[in-house]
Amino acid sequence: MRPDSCKTMRVLIGGGTGFIGRNLSRVLRSQGHEVTLISRQPGKNRLTWDELSRVGLPSCEGVVNLAGVNVLNPFQRWNDAFRQEVISSRIETTKSLAKAIRDAEHPPQAWVLVTGIGFYRPSHTTKYTEESPGGDFDFFSRLVSSWEEAAKIPSEATRQVVVRSGAVLGKDGGAISQMIWPFRLGLGGPIASGHQHFPWIHVVDLSGIVTHALQKEGLRGILNGVAPSAVDTTSEDFARAMGSVLKRPAFLPLPGFVVKAVFGSERSTMLLDGQRVLPKRTLESGYTFAFPDLSSALQDILD
Q: Is the dihedral of CA 73, 195, 229, 285 positive or negative?
């Protein structure tokens, strides 16, 4: 339910037709907000990217960008062309929205960008909060830095919030959809050694954090979009929890060389390395997680 103290908003969502966008749209509409999607294809309650560049930002109180091609599509070969598509689908759409906000006669109250925890350097020991440095050691960290830089606008009239998301779990897409069948067949297990950390978040909570960022007056800056218990979740923990909920064995590891063969050395770092990320500022801002622990998240998704 929408709190009585929360005014209804008109929200524009870039990349709103994807897995996270569909869930975020449901949450916002359930609270009485009006949602318009920006998409490559025209449709009801939609605006195309070309229309945005031609006519500018429609009247709205909030703007969110979720746009970006799926980096971990196992059927997509990692080459220069796809690498450029990964960059442009994130940075160019963000630049387009930032420009539209700058040029708007009546700019929105809030501008929220969802990026990734790839900003932080992989580590088995370091615990990262929103204040931790990062952003200049590999392709994905530099991508997130450039992505977040593209979102910056000089005006103080619009609050700017960046949500750095972990792996997103949900019933109708995200990380679970790509790994569930081996587990259902009893062939699941950790990736490589299983010791790398697995920063995750339920899509309900990622949508909740974005909604919180849109509604919370005075909230600005970085929020980590990971579950509180994710800081201690490893690939082995995740595999064991998946097997437990599905009542299947989960002890067959996926060798690292297979991961590298499928995804390439650059992309495979996202699966073979890991970060210990805390949602410190997210919690301090007043957000309450619906699914703070892995067992309840997987029970909800897999039941």
A: negative
CA dist 78 and 89 (Å) reads: 15
Q: Within a 10 A sphere around the Cβ of 1, how many other Cβ atoms?
A: 6
- Angle between helical axes of 80-103 and 139-150 (0-180°, round to 10): 20
* Phi, then psi, of 253 in degrees rounded to 5: -70, 150
* Phi and psi based region of residue 45 (left: phi greater than 0; alpha: psi -120 to 50; beta: remaining): left
pLDDT tens digit sequence for 136-178: 889 999 999 999 999 999 988 899 999 999 999 998 888 888 7
Please tell me whether residue 277 adopts helix, strand or coil conformation: strand
Report the relative pairing of strands 10-14 and 62-65 from DSSP bridges. Answer: parallel
**Identity of the residue numbered 205:** D
Domain that holds residue 223: 10-302
Q: To which residue do tokens 């499928």 refer? A: 262
Q: Are strands 110-116 and 34-39 parallel, antiparallel or unpaired?
A: unpaired
In the chain, count of helices (H) and strands (E)? 10, 12
Tens of pLDDT, residues 243-296 = 999 999 888 888 998 989 988 888 888 888 999 999 999 999 999 999 999 999
Q: How far apart are CA 298 and CA 290, in angstroms?
A: 12
> Which CATH number goes with the domain that contains 215?
3.40.50.720
Residue 238 maps to a domain:
yes
| 2 in a structural domain | no
Query: Which is nearest to 269 in space by CA: 261, 282, 260, 258?
Result: 260
Q: Quick check: is 263 in a domain?
A: yes
Please provide residue 174's backbone torsions phi and psi, each rounded to the nearest 5 degrees: 75, -160
Cα–Cα distance measured from residue 213 to residue 223, given in angstroms and rounded to the nearest whole number: 9
Has residue 5 been placed in a domain?
A: no
Q: What is the DSSP letter of 193?
A: T
How many structural domains comprise the chain? 1
Alpha helices per DSSP H over 137-255: 139-150, 175-184, 203-215, 235-246
The confidence score (pLDDT) of residue 5 equals 46
